[in-house]
Amino acid sequence: MFDEKAVSLQIVMSDFTAELAKLHGLTGGDYSRQVERIAHRKEFHPLDIDNGIFTVGGEKSDDYQNLLIAARKAVELGYTVYLLPNPRNIRTADFILEKKGTYRMYDLKTVFGKASVGQNLIDSIGQCNRILLNMTTEYSTRSLAFDIKKFFEINDKAIEVLIFKGRKHISVNRAMVFNGSFLFNFRRFYER
């Protein structure tokens, strides 16, 4: 039996995957415009119970609940969230976060363990140049700062590590990490 709806969905997702794959060859303004184009695709639809969160499917994914928890925190912080599909043949981000007309892609790493940040950051290399750490456990501020610094040292394409901790968020960029007072400043923001 021919399932026209399933074939149509496969074509749409193939086209969506092609749009995501284009990002790997773009930089600067071209990259940013492509991210915005992806967020404006008609395949995105709002979640029924969550204002500000849009998806194209993937509700059966193993990571979906973690994605949804982080997306809800992002909405509380003023972002509009676009949950991206997880195509099997390319590495891509988990979200597009939009705030005040700026669209950025993030790979989500949910932190459950006391010593898992470093490995989570390393695992994200090649996937996205912006990482969102959703902290669900107490974590040594000093260890977190060193893990983030090491990540920027070994990944020259890294732009930002965005951290959600409770009801606050901290954005760490390359310039901050290589400032001599990074540890002091990070501790001040993270522990307040």
Keywords:
single chain; 192 residues; alpha/beta; eight-stranded mixed beta sheet; 7 helices; 8 strands; 41% helix; disordered N terminus
How far is the first residue's CA from the last residue's CA? 61 Å
The whole-angstrom Rg is: 17 Å
Which ranges are low-confidence, i.e. pLDDT below 50, for 5 or more consecutive residues? 1-12
The overall pLDDT, averaged over residues, is 87
Question: Biggest sheet: strands side by side, in what order?
Answer: 1-2-3-4-5-6-7-8
Topology as H/E string? HHEEHEEEHEHEEHH
- Largest sheet geometry: 8 strands, mixed
Label the structural class. alpha/beta
Strand content: 15-25%
Our count of helices gives 7
Overall helicity: 40-55%
Number of strands: 8
Shape: globular
Please characterize this protein's 3D structure.
- Helix 4 packs parallel to helix 5 and helix 5 (141-154) packs across helix 7 (182-191).
- Helix 3 (64-76) links the parallel strand 2 and strand 3 (80-83).
- By secondary structure, the chain is of the alpha/beta class.
- It is built from seven helices and eight strands.
- The chain has an eight-stranded mixed β-sheet with strand order 1-2-3-4-5-6-7-8, with helices on both faces.
- It is globular.
- Residues 1-12 have low confidence and may be disordered.
- It starts with a helix and ends with a helix.
Describe the structure in brief.
The chain has 192 residues and is an alpha/beta fold. It contains seven helices and eight strands; from the N terminus they run ααββαβββαβαββαα.
